[in-house]
Queue: 2 jobs
Job 1
Amino acid sequence: MRPLDENETTLVFNKLHKFVGNNLKNIVLESQSHEGPDANPGRYCFRLQKNRVYYVSESLIKRATNVKREKLVSLGTQIGKFTKAGKFHLTIQSLNLLAANAKHKVWLKPTSEMSFLYGNSVLKGGVGRITENIQVNDGVVVFSMSDVPLGFGDAAKSTVDCRKMDPNGIVVHRHADIGEYLRMEDDL
Amino acid sequence: MSIEKGVKSSPRKKQKAVFALQKESEKEELLSDSDVTDEPEKLEESDEEEQGMDSDSEMSSGGGDPFANDILQGSDDEDDEEEGSEGSDGDSDSDESDIEKRAKAIDDEKAREEEDAEAELQLNIKEEADEFRLPTPEMFPVVELMELIEAFEKPRPICLRTNTLKTRRRDLAGVLLNRGVNLDPLSKWSKLQSASSFLPVMALAPQEKERIVDMAAAPGGKTTYVAALMKNTGIIYANEMKESRLKSLTANLHRMGVTNTIVSNYDGRELPKVLGNNSVDRVLLDAPCSGTGVISKDESVKTSKNALDIQNCAHLQKQLILAAIDSVDANSKSGGYIVYSTCSIMVAENEAVIDYALKKRDVKLVPCGLDFGRPGFTRFRGQNFHPSLDKTRRFYPHVHNMDGFFVAKLKKMSNLKQTPQQQSETLGEVDEAPGLVESNEQNNVEGDGQKHQKKKAVVKENKKTNKKTNNGFTKLGTGEKAAASGNEKRVKRKRPSREEIAKTREEKRLALREAKRKAKTESKAASK
């Protein structure tokens, strides 16, 4: 387990910025952790372990240093992975973090929830609500109508275009959804 | 007619060749003639058969009788069963009344030494010596024995637990009902449905901001429950030895939104070394076991386990529980508890392990906080356990309508490695032992010599060597080593008041050790 270096940090923050925008400071700087019995819990940090990036509080990190590198499997919340090519992808486990701080959101109609959870992209006909000011290739978090986060992805169209589209057009390219916990448990 | 069918199908289900043969051969005898054969074995088996008929008929005709009996209350089984059997059918009343009388007679004769017999029936498919069958049924009265076996055949109802980190029970219930799932809220335990695997967590009662270790965490049902109860505060160490199960553990943790967990892949026995002794507030040990309690989920357990497997499991469990106790900090403000649970009903894995822990460490049993469930055994088949073992709890499928289970809650009284009663024992043991295992004695004494310098690193090293040698030993061997290392530990740490009583003994022991060390320093010098 080690902290991220410069390049890695840049990559991670860029990706996160796509989804949460300015709320990034919430995640990184001002977060207060309530974990651990210590009086001063400290903030959350990112750590890298076996090409996976974890978002953990400092008190947890201190405790985890006892565990040998081969034996440490996971800590805190995983937010993403680095590929062999060096790119950073956010994984579904980061959903809670993203959803809490998301700038751009899409709400799905109940009928198209299941389709999204099976791995399909979001079509215009399935969109219930959508936040304003979404540009193309913005990160979008997908919710159900009852505000349950379902996944996240890339915006294929801006909000403005979205209104003009036909009902079968793709609005959001799906990157990750919570159905993956069942479908691809082994890959996580 | 229904009775015959019932009897025929159950032997097949149970896959006991011997049992089945005897059953089928005796079935006609029973129906026509209520006299029982001479041999004690057959007597018991035919009794069981007769009771089997009764309980089978209960099952088929009564349907919900055994289930109606329990519902989470420790019911009075014998009364219920008698009522059920009386009311069930009128096909062969005379046979039944005879059977009942005989059953009652047997019940009166037997003490509470049952389960092993029934479990062994289940476990030993091959021809076993008569000694296994003759003491049947020792844990249950015969009537109940059949109930238990029958209950193992049926699946337990699936229970759900709401992930309180993400939703509320009402919301979840609403959504599931909309999808057509039949839901019956079991509202007895404060807002949550529970099945036997949640009981140990309820017994553990983790508080917020504590440090908790879950020593055998996969696939993560209990760990996530602990995290939910702690509301994601504090720290949980989730440990799992088998790599293949780690993936499901991490996936479940992330899916449930648990953020305060460190997942590691150690052998549970190594955890005190990794985490440091006396460093956590509570430990949950859901020990790997033979699985005799969950036969309803996995029928292969009936055929694949024999007495040797139980022995191995028990040995591992004893080591794990000692490791668990060593990790806990007795002086922690809010904790100092260890919860030990298994999904097995075998005494060797349950009461025997707890008794061992009571002897080896300064812990005591406290009430689990679960108000139903049967108390554990304080004696069984000639073995006498510590009287406080009645604070442990056993759960049975036929009584509580959940999987067979055992839960015990221990409180660590102090960070000593050894109880005062043991000190006098070790004096005797150390004297006699030298002949037994010389090489390890050498290791031990070398460690003693080093420890006299009272350095922490050395202490750890000694523990390591002790543990390594321990693993190869019989219980007697391990007891000695643990005792010896415990002596060292005590010398090193601050002393609670109990030490005052034991000081004279310790001085005696020190003297012994000095003498030994002098004898061994020569060999040490020679080896170096």
Job 2
Amino acid sequence: MGSRASSLLREEEIEEIKRETGFSHSQITRLYSRFSSLDKGENGHLSRDDFQRIPELAINPLGDRIINAFFAEGDDQVNFRGFMRTLAHFLPVEEGTQNASPREALNSRDSKLRFAFSLYDLDKDDKISREELLQVLRMMVGVNISDEQLGSIADRTIQEADQDGDHAISFSEFQKVLEKVDVEQKMSIRFLH
Amino acid sequence: MFARCLCIVALALVMSMPQASAVHHVTTYPTGQTDEQIPKAVEDVDIDEHGARHNVSLFSVDFSHVRVPLEITIWLLFASLAKIGFHQAPRISSLVPESCLLIILGLALGWLLVLINNDKTSSSKPILSADVFFLYLLPPIVLDAGYFLPARSFLDNLGSICSFAVIGTLWNSFGIGLSIYALCRIPAFGLTGLPVGEALLFGSVISAVDPVAVLAVFQEVGVNEQLEVLVAGESLLNDAVTVVLYQLLSVLADLPSVPASSVLLGVVRFFVVCLGGIAFGICAGLLASFTTRFTYPVPALEPILILLTCYLAYLITEMLHLSGIMALISAALTMRSYVDLNLEWRSRTTLRRTLRALSSTSETLIFLLLGMATLDGPHDWSWPFVISTLILCLVWRATGVLILSWVANRVRLVPISYKDQFIIAYGGLRGAIAFSLVYLIPKVFHHRALFTTATITTLLFTVFVQGMTIRPLVDLLEVKKKCETEPTVTEEINTRIFDHLLGGIEDICGHLGHHHWLAVFERLNDRWLRRFLLRCPSAKHPTILAAYSNLEKTQALSLLSLHRISTTTTNLVQLEIAQGEERDKQVVDGSEREGGSRTEEGIGGEVSLPVADMEDIRKLVERHFYRTRQRLATVNRHSLPVEDSERQAKEIMLRRRKFQRLTSRMEHEKRVMCRQKTMPENSVEERRHVRLDRSYTVGGYNSPGNKLEGLNEDDNLEEDNNSDDVFEFDSIEESSAAITVASPREGEGEGDVQVPFLKKECLLIYHDSERKNIVNLTTSRFPLVFL
């Protein structure tokens, strides 16, 4: 299966992906075989259903949002490049592209935070409103918590982060409030070499 | 609280009295009579101590008749009552782990028995004999540990676990053995004359980390899953090494020189022991899975069958001097996935509860008897020996863990942090296995008494000191990290979000995908094993199936109530208008109705609520947020953790399904409304016709929403949608007229009426003709049988 997979993926493509995302050759081939195994239709694209076939995602509270993060605006299919581009956010910070400046690389701290921010911000207005926050919170809690309590958590969260008083969290406020969190470590997977 | 403890202790004393006095009773019989000659209780004549016969007595006691079962029952009852007693005193039990309390109780009882029973001849046999321990008390614990082992973490960390188990134990044994030998050469200790063989034997006995003690303590401490699986896995797998080393050294110990061939033989023997144990275990697991394929008429037999098959494997491997523990572990791991699919949820619960009951009882008994047996046996106290043993155990374990972790971290995906290493080293408790092994040392060894004393002391030290302090230490280490940064609520929430996110991405990447052999096994599994071993080979994904099947039933019922509240169309119109909040409200209402909380307010409310205290919020977050895999509560002896994660999984899936269903229904209504404007009426017929194919699936991951209406063309159904468990019919008449459900495979009907009979119980939902209301709901194998 390994040889079949890499034959379908040409060397130039691998090189391009390597340059763009910072994965190593073996990582790319391995992830390509994973991509192929998910791609039941064998058309080189993954749809949302392919993702939903992963059983552990079904019981992940953020499953839907994570899947949505792979698809660009309005698209229903994601190809291997897009797949890798999204996964590149999760490379550990030490690895990754050498050419791109450390700030702009896909796995920089900023990019990781941006990815996390986009999980909240569905309408892409660059702000996390109270409703958006509540939606995410509601997905993450059990059924025994009342709306008031959830609302108070959300209010507290906004209160802590909000600096310009608009009762919403912008990206820069989001960054600031998370500056003590070790985002680099928490949003990194060691893709096996 | 204290009064209750006193009551229980008093009760215990009372119960131990009959046994103590019975011991007297037996020994005072005239020597000519054996037990069998003593007449039975009720109707016979009474014989007093002098052998004179009296008349028929109204009341007599014949203890020896029931002696053995009575003793066992008394001990078991006592142990259970003691455990209940501890839980009544939460202050004590939060400080001191249960194992310690039980040992203390055992010590007290043992001392009491020694006082009462001054006649030494009757108590020459130690109560916790090695036989009792290895044959009866240990297997339930190991089986239970294997069955509830988190398989995924176990396989992820298998390399590290094996290295700790094998290399770590070897390192410990030889290190301790040789150091003891070296120390004993020092004349100041007064222990010269300890041959190196005996020292090594002692080292091998004392070095093995004990599963019983480790599991007992760690389930109370509550560390993260990876850490616990490392320590627990190591304690379980080092049995093979211990067995081989012990046997080898006890044979070689008194030889003047060790031939190299013996060492080689020992290595080969290790592999034989290991692989033999695993082989027997896998056979037993497969046998158990195979038999459960056929036990659906007699579900009451299932737990017994499974437990006995595994026990048989254990006994056979013990007979062949192979590693019984490895057999049990591999049996449990093998049969788990198949048995979970074959058994109904009731039988599964019964099996789990039985395992838990047995292992809990065993563990209690072991610690109790350990305490009691401490005072037995020949003792030879020697300060330097004991102290040096303790220190050496700690030192060698620490260095072993450090070195092995350093090596393992080069290849591991998730490194073992220093804090984890400390806990692994500190959590290396010794327990009853060491104790039993030391009792098995043949009496010809001169220093057996010395070893016994040192072993018992080390054991008590590790269980008490290390067991009691490990939890505060864990908290201390955790707290130390936290105190540096005061986490805000945002940080807490976001940390959880990151954890979930990371878990999701790991699953997408197929974390285990890099284990190529595992993928091969999966394919093999699907093609051959599942067909052979499972009742219904198409059932998928066992761990989630349980949650799913409950989910479907409750979901259908809640859908029923959702339908009854308001008609679908108006709901959807509202949904269209008020986007996010209404949707959330539906979801919230549904899930709240499910969960039973009774709030009425919507979430989008403008009411400004008072911002609660930080502490309250933290508690809310801690208690109610869903757990990620890393933070999942670890194996708790008193509850069933699977229920918890199943509940969580069920809630999440319910919520997502409802959301998907509502969105798709909204889509469909939009489409229907469009179509109805443009298409003639026969599309309704068409719709009805197609609808017969439609079904919800249980255990499959078909695309959401497509299953509601047959109109959506992108029905990328799974190849085998014969795992359909729910069929929808538009009307009762329609179902009777048009359905052919001879087997779940064929869903489409065209007017043939075959015998409507489904292969398994399915959930059938009957709609009325406008598809507005569910008129009927039944779980049945016969679609035409309605309420």
